[in-house]
Every structure is written in structure tokens, then in C-alpha cells.
Amino acid sequence: MPRINYVEPAVMLATILQWLFLATVAGAFVGSGTSLFLHGLFFLTERTASVPLWVQMLLLPLGGILNGLLLYYGYRWNTAGLTDSVITSVHKQSGRMPFKTVAIKPLAALITLASGGSAGKEGPCSHIGGSLASAIGRMLRLNVELQKRIVACGVSAGFASVFGTPIAGAIYGVEVLAIGRIRHDFLFPAIIAGVTSFEVSKMWGVPYTYYLIPVLPEFSEILFIKTIVIGIVCGLVAWFFVDMLTLSRKMFERLRTRFAIWPPLMPFLGGVLLSALIIVIPTDYLGLSLPLVSRALDGEAMPFLGVVWKTLLVAITLGSGFYGGIATPQFVIGAIAGSAVADLLDVDPALGAAVGLVSVIAAASNTPIAAILMGIELFGGMAGTIYGAGAAIAAYLIIGHRSVYPDQPVAYPKS
Amino acid sequence: MPRINYVEPAVMLATILQWLFLATVAGAFVGSGTSLFLHGLFFLTERTASVPLWVQMLLLPLGGILNGLLLYYGYRWNTAGLTDSVITSVHKQSGRMPFKTVAIKPLAALITLASGGSAGKEGPCSHIGGSLASAIGRMLRLNVELQKRIVACGVSAGFASVFGTPIAGAIYGVEVLAIGRIRHDFLFPAIIAGVTSFEVSKMWGVPYTYYLIPVLPEFSEILFIKTIVIGIVCGLVAWFFVDMLTLSRKMFERLRTRFAIWPPLMPFLGGVLLSALIIVIPTDYLGLSLPLVSRALDGEAMPFLGVVWKTLLVAITLGSGFYGGIATPQFVIGAIAGSAVADLLDVDPALGAAVGLVSVIAAASNTPIAAILMGIELFGGMAGTIYGAGAAIAAYLIIGHRSVYPDQPVAYPKS
Questions:
Q1: Of A15, A167, A182, the CB nearest to B415
Q2: Separate counts of helices (H) and strands (E) for chain B
Q3: Tens digits of per-residue pLDDT, B75-127?
Q4: Residue A1 has pLDDT above 50, yes or no
Q5: Contact (CB<8Å) B185/A187
Q6: Which distant-in-sequence residues (6+ apart) come within 8 Å of B21 by Cβ?
Q7: Does the distance separating the beta carbons of A400 and B12 come in below 8 Å?
Q8: Residues B76-89: b if buried by 16+ CB within 10 A, e if exposed
Q9: How far does B94 lie from chain A, in Å, by closest CA?
């Protein structure tokens, strides 16, 4: 007879109750924090969305210098000797994040996006999530393991709120911590915090959009293979995106050291460069570019060149030293690339955009499971489930071990 | 400037094309094989579903002795020195499975289920999947790594066909191989094979049922916590189920050695015992018991005692030496337990049944991600997504490191 072990279930029950409490509290704080940020963002970007071109051309360098000054002087407050990165915090800092400087990244992101810098809104939200959760954990004097877990769960909560997909967001927060592995022991806190944070954000009135992608009710093997081709192309696009970002960061850094430029001036120069480029490149590609995503998901065939424009603007924005997120650009590039390739392959561009969006996320962030769930939560039905899944994994493979997150370690190689 | 590396994407592209081919072929064969098995199963079980009690009482010992003889003499054909278990095959046999004896487990399962033995239909399907894929791999002379992967992808294909959930089934096949880790490098083959196999099975006319679970459109924190309580109870139920199975196996084994009973007689004795028990226990709990699952998911409140009946019958069936699957019983027990607990907590029993079903799978099989996806694919909406996910992970934690699959290794501890 198997010895009935009462200790293990008791420990597990205690773990569940502990995290039900900790993750709900963390999720509620993070959901409120991200909502505040998102409302600020919507308020500011609405005001600068349709300014005349010459105003936009002035705003960009102005945003650049403000960003530069904020980041340069702001981090002098960080006397804790800790890096301000959630991935590094979980892996190398025992889940500790600097708290005094918590507002810098969100403020910098607001300036970046309001002035037209091309970037995303997820980075600041996961930063808010990780920082608030870290602070809660330290207030409760959690031990190192619990502290790491609460930071990861704060990150998950941040993504759940900003994506509007509680389960996919939660799993993205866990999966993004390393390539090739999901830590199952992080899952429960992540999902509780993700659901709570998402619901709290909805309560604070953050709007979310979901899309219905039309596909034939019957499965088609040909279409399945075509969506995998879209996935492969999107994986290559993600590869191009990651490499361009790295290249741009290096070039701006070389420029800075070569001419001994004062660091806060770098994003100013980036802003000037962006101002010059938008004479040629449509201003749609500035900021979050969410209207482009909507158009692609509504079935408008997008030009492949859009991928180049968006990549170029993001690479200059982030490479020159603006601070901003890196996930929204993946959505934008994915939706555009998917739509363009779909059009070539005689596939509905809306389906292509949906498949492309999840594929670029799966590849550039190395988060295939979260991308599959995101497809399901954002689009549902066969488009989001079957067609999204095959493409997402193909894209995840083709990009190899590159990542938009330079501090993401490889836990398990892909091939 | 990042050195542009053309080798890695080329290798990855080759990997993708290779698996697009291998997994499609494997998926098509596996989908056909499982369809053949499932049609045979439906044909036989329809004929024995509503026989009078005395016929049922004769059928059970008859099925037992047939099962015993088949397993005892059949495996003499296995001269390869390989174990007939897919999990062992991937971890310890370099992806090799004995092929001469491929039909034994499916035939034994047909006899078990047609004679009223209480078991599942997934084991034989994943067995067909793993064996066919292993044979394809060896015909193509794949190397050890590829051979392991094709077996895993065959297993995924088998689960995708039998569950009727292509993505959840595919991921179940990967996740079930070890506790606490999903091998991302197995995902692409698994998903391609899963989708193909599922679609091939649909083409062969295998019927699938999905359920619409009614929930209020607004999220409720109270309901979320109640579903987590359902998850915790279902985790404990899964624990009870696993321990009873182990206990029963040990007791029958002790009986056999104590009285030196000829092995084929053991399931005969099991059959006699089952015949005696069904004087008290309703015959609904024999066989697959899928009508019980349907009733629970349609909103009928189920008696908690049903968990005990089903567990007892399954433990005797499988413990005494009948061969059969072990996943359908998890569905049955989960749906019953969830429904019963929901009724106590003033939750819609249909929602409770859905949540319970995915929770017991997550716990007893140690497959939380697959369980979440299964909730989404089977039930959809908020019931399948948010409420299912929290409960599934809670159940997965509470069961500790127990498993219905005794050869499932622990890759990463849960706490």
C-alpha cells in the first residue's frame, strides 16, 4: 500500500493559498499601475496623433532630448546597484528591482510615444509589474525563491493588462524569461496575477480590441501549409528586425564614443534623424502604429515595404537612446508582413495579418506557447488556433536563438 | 555590425521543411490508424452498451480471460527486447518501439471496453501513434534524435485524434513526457502531426463533441476563487485516483505471487470482482462512461460518490491486468467531481464539470498547459479560458509529483 503522505499535499495547499493571496495582491497593484500608465499614454498620444508634419518634426528631437536628460540624470537616483531589467532581476538579482527609479521608464516611454518615437507600450508595463511586485515582495520579506517568483508574476500581470489577453499575457511573462523552457512552478502565480491584473485594468476602463478573422469552416491542408509559409517569412522578418535593432544600437554607440557626444544628446540626434526620415516615410509608422494593425486585421492588404519602414524607425528610436517597449512593434511588423505575404499567396490578408502577428511574437520574443494562446485569445476560432499555431512554431524555429531581449538566456536549444 | 549568419536560418529552414514532411506523413498514418481503432471501438461498444445485467456480468470475466491470454501469449512475439511504452521509448529506447506486437494493446483495449472494463481510449491511440511513427522513422533510417522526436510526434498525433483537440492534444503528447518541462524542440513536429492527424480522423468520419458552457459575460472574482477551490478539490481527487490505481496494482500483484496464480487468470478474477460490484454500482461507470461526462457538462449535478465508483472500477480493471487507457477516466472523474463541488459552492454544475475535467487532467497527467488549451478547445469562451486555467494549475500543484503514468520522469520540481 502506498504510504499516504499528508505532508506533500499540505505543502502544496499552503503554496496555493500563499500565491492566491500574493498574486491577487500583486495583480491588483500591477493592474492599477499599468492602467494609470495606459490612460496617461492614451491621453498624450491622442493629443499628438494628428499634428501637422512640421510640429511632428519639432516634437521628435524635443522628445529625444527630454528622454535623454530623464534617463541620464534619473538613474543617478538608483543607488541600489541593481539593474533595471526584469529578466536580469529574476536570473541574477534574486528578484530585486531598484524602486526609487520605478517611474523613469514609464515616464520616458510616455515622452517617447507622445513625441512620435516608434516603440511599444509593453516594456514599461512589464517594468511597472516587476517593480511593484518586487517592492511588495520585499515589504513582505519573502525569501529569494518567492521573491523571484513574485517578480515574474508581476511581469506576467503587466503583460496580461497591456495585451488584453490574461492567459497568454501570463504565460508570455513566464516564457520570455528564458529560451526553450517554461518554468511550471511560475505558472500558478502568473495566471492568478494575470487574470486579476487584466480584470482590474478593465475595471479602470482600459479599452481592449479583439478581432474576428473570417475563415472557411472547413480545414484546408493547402491553407495550413500556406500559413506555415507565412510563419516562415515572418520568422525571417523577425530575424531582420532583431538584427537591425542590434545593428542600430551598435552604430549609435560607435558614433557616441567616436565623437565623444554627451549621452543625453544621442536621442536628440535620433529624433532629428527621424524628423528627416518622415519626409519620406508615412507618419503612420511613428508611435505605436496600432491603426496599421487594425487595418491589416480588417483585411486591408498591406505593403511589404511597411516592414522596412517600421523596423527602420524602431531601430533608430530605440537604438539612439529613446526608451520604449519592444512588443507592439512586433505586432505591427507581424501584421504587415503577414498581410503582405498572404496577398501574394492568395490567402485572405486578414488571416495573414493574424497569423503574422502571432508568428513574429513567437519568433522575436521566443514565446511560442504564449503566441499560440495569444492567437486564441485575440482571434479565436480556427484562424487563431490551428492556423496560428503551426505558423507561430515555424517562425519560432527559423529565427534560431536570436531575441529582441538581449538578456534572455538560452535554457534549451531549439534544434 | 552583427555578423550575418546564413547557416543558422538555413539549418532551421531545413528542420522546418523536414518536419513539415515527416510530421505530415506520420500524422496521416496515425490519424488513419486511430480512426480504424475508434470505429472498431464504437462498433463494439454500441453492441454491448445496453445488454441486460446478467449478460454484462458474464461479459466481464470473459473479457478478462481474453485480455489475459492475449497479453500473456501476444508479447511472446516481442523478440526485440524493447518495452511497449511510448514514454520509456522516448527516454530510454532512443525512440524505438516493438512493431510486431503493435496490434496487441489496441485489441486488448477493444476487448476491455467492449466487455465493460472501466478504462480509456487514449492509451491505445497514443500507442498506435508512437508505434507507427517509430516504424516510419526506422524505415527512413532517422538518427537517434530525430527518431525520438518522430515517436513523440506520433504520440501527439494520437492524442490529437482521440481528444478531438488538435493543439491541446499535440501539446499533451509533448508535456506528458516529463513533469515540469515542455521540450520546445518537440513542438513543431507535434503540432503539424496533431493537426494532420485530427483532420484525417475527421475525414474518416470520427465524431467529436464540443460543449458550450454558459457563464455570465462579466468576470467575477468570487467565481474565479470558487473555480480555484474546485481545482484544488479536483487535484485531491486526482491524487486519490492515482493512489488507488497504484494500490490496486500492488494488491493484485501480491495476490498473484501469494497464490501463484497463472497470469492470464488475473484479469478474469478482476472481471468476476467487477461483475459482483455492478450489483451495487450503476453500470454507467463501466466502459468509457462518456454519457456521464455529457450529462455533467449539460449541467446535471452529479453525485460525488460517482468519483468513488469510477475510481474503484478503473482501479480493479487496470490493476487486475485488463489493458486500457487512463485519460478518459480522468475526464469522467473530473467532470463528476467538478459538477458535485460546484453544486455545493452554488456554481453552475456545467461550469464546474468543465473546470473539473481540465483540472483532473492537469493534475493526474501533469500537463497544465495542455489542460488549459484543452479547456479552450473543448469549451471556449471565458469558462474554458480564465476559469479553467486557474483551476487547472491549482490542481496540478496540489497533486505534488504523483502521476497516472508511472514512467513519467520529473524534469523540474513543482515547488
A1: A15
A2: 17, 0
A3: 887 777 788 788 888 888 888 888 888 889 999 999 999 999 999 999 999 99
A4: no
A5: no
A6: none
A7: yes
A8: eeeeeebbbbbbeb
A9: 17
A134-171 tens-digit pLDDT: 999 999 999 988 999 999 999 999 999 999 999 999 99
| Interchain proximity B15–A181, CB inside 8 Å | no
What does the block give as the cell for A360?
Answer: 513574429
B7 at the A interface (CB within 8 A)?
no
Domains and CATH numbers, chain A: 7-203 (1.10.3080.10), 221-398 (1.10.3080.10)
Helix A144-163, helix A166-175: angle, nearest 10: 140
Inter-chain CB proximity A414 and B184 less than 8 Å:
yes
Largest distance between two CA atoms of chain A: 81
pLDDT score for A415: 64
| CA pair distance A155, A98, nearest whole angstrom | 15
DSSP states along B59-77: HHHHHHHHHHHHHHHHGGG
User: What residue in B sits closest to A202 (Cα-Cα)?
Assistant: B219
Cβ–Cβ below 8 Å for A247 and B195: no
Which residues of chain B are within 8 Å of residue A22 when distances are taken between CB atoms?
Answer: none
For residue B171, the chain A residues in CB contact (below 8 A) are: 369
A6 and B CB contact within 8 Å: no
The cell numbers describing A66, all together, are 527630454
Distance between CA atoms of residues A189 and A157, nearest Å: 9
CB B133 within 8 A of CB B175: no
- B69-85: pLDDT as tens digits: 999 998 887 777 788 78
Q: How many C-beta neighbours within 10 Å does residue B294 have?
A: 14
Provide, for chain B, the percentages of residues in helix, strand and coil under a 3-state DSSP scheme, each rounded to the nearest 5: 70, 0, 30
Cα B355 to Cα B337: distance, rounded to the nearest angstrom: 10
Q: Which residues of B are less than 8 Å from A239 in CB distance?
A: 9
Task: Write out the three cell numbers for A4.
Answer: 499516504
Q: b/e per residue, B205-242, with b = 16+ CB within 10 A?
A: ebeeeebebebeeebeeebbebbbbbbbbbbbbbbbbb
Q: Which residues contact A118 (CB under 8 A, 6 or more apart)?
A: A274, A285, A286, A287, A289, A310, A313, A314, A316, A317, A324, A329
- Gap between the Cα atoms of B279 and B287, Å rounded: 16
Neighbours of B414 (CB within 10 A): 22
Chain centroid offset of residue A50 CA: 25
| Phi-psi domain of A142 (left: phi exceeds 0; alpha: psi -120 through 50; beta: other) | beta
Q: Kindly list the distances between the CA atom of residue A319 and the CA atoms of A254, A256, A267, A322, B69, in Å, as whole numbers in the listed order.
A: 11, 12, 8, 7, 72
Spatial distance between the Cα atoms of B190 and B184, rounded to a whole number of angstroms: 10
